[in-house]
Amino acid sequence: MAGAGPDICRRGRRLYYRWPAQGVQGYARSGLDRSNAATDGRSGAAGSAALYSAWKQRIDPLDISPIEAHTIADSISAGLPRDRVKATRAVVETDGAFVSVSDEEILDAIPVLGRDAGVFAEPAGAAPYAGLKKAVSSGLVSPHERVVLLVTGNGLKDVASAIKSTGSPTVIEPTSEAVDKALDTLT
Predict the structure, then answer these.
(1) pLDDT at residue 11 in the model
(2) Residue in 157, 97, 91 with CA at minimum distance from that of residue 124
(3) How many whole angstroms separate alpha carbon 143 and alpha carbon 153?
(4) What is residue 60's three-state secondary structure?
């Protein structure tokens, strides 16, 4: 079963994935207005979106209860984010937002990054792009804004997820003729 993925943090005009994360004491009592915050229509309580869930429910980051984290993006998965206070502070102080992305959205981002940006990302590295897509579709980020995504996880860390997201690779003989022939079938 695919769980919710990592939290994506918007700081002003910048979007970052934040996991694990630490923040503001008294956050839940700060009276922040979430009436204009975008929602994705899902509970972030399942999977590993602890910060997203706490932010949506106005729970002080120090009061977050550990959850059993389940996500394909295992290198950024945490049942209780260690730096939750700092991450929450960053979002609150910049009038930002958290975005929760599913494992399916993360897997869908892997081939797009490879095809359109030439970046072979592991699931944790693809999470920022999946979050950006959701932030654009929910109106948190304008489609015309300039955005920088940090994709630090190489796809070689998790080849099984890459295959899951793109299908089995084409196996060829180790010759330049075989490479040319395989490339001709792609165009």
Answers:
(1) 58
(2) 157
(3) 25
(4) coil
What whole-number distance in Å separates Cα of residue 66 and Cα of residue 80?
5
Extract the tokens encoding 75: 């290198």
Q: Is 50 exceeded by the pLDDT of residue 18?
A: no
Which stretch of DSSP H or E encloses residue 130? Answer: helix 123-137
Task: Give the CA diameter of the chain.
Answer: 67
CA distances, 104 to each of 3, 61, 112, 149 (Å): 9, 27, 13, 19
How far is the first Cα of the chain from the last one, in angstroms, to the nearest whole number? 35
Q: What is the pLDDT of residues 70-109, one digit of tens each?
A: 888 888 888 888 888 998 888 888 888 888 899 999 999 9
* Ordered domains of the chain (ranges, CATH): 4-186 (3.40.50)
> If you search the block for the tokens 């939750």, which residue do you land on?
84
